[in-house]
Fold this protein.
Amino acid sequence: MSASIRLSSDWKNLKSLAIFGFGRIAQGNIDLFLDLLNVTAIIDNNPAYQNQKYRDVPIKSFKQYISVNVEEKIVVLSGKKVYSSILNELEDSGLKEYEDFCHMTVFFEDWFYGFNNKICLGRTIVSLTTYCTLNCKNCNMLTPYNKNKRMYDLEFLKQDVQLLLDKVDFVSNFVVVGGEPLLFRQLPEYIEYVGENYSNKIGNIQIITNGMLM
């Protein structure tokens, strides 16, 4: 086993597990887990989700779940900020990270690739244009300092995503950015192309906009 794998060796032959989280990120990715593994429970502390089922899998609070389950592995489907609070809750109950539970990005890297030779990415960012409606000094895309702004060609973007997703088994969060992506007039056509051809390989499609355009 590669020294870079963080999960304990008993994850390798994993057949069943529980999912922690049923928010937006989880709902975009949970079907991947349900199709591949026996998911025995979905854990979420939001009362609005509890005592329901998703694809016949019961949704429980962590308190309900841990009262009858002590040995099953847990994969947390959440953003990194939310994960820090979940991690504390799990560790306070006596569970150990990488032995008893892990974040979905670690599971993608270690279990899918390290143990099963499948490429699953937690996040992929695609820029459609370097033009923007704002000129923010601390822009993380360095837009004010880009002197050669451009709109990318739609066919080039289609070929680019085809090249990626023909080689990758799954992308959890497919993020579309700019500049300002709503300036890209062919945005609907691009999203439609990605959805029609690769929806089975993508958990969520997210468009990052500054909200300045209708």
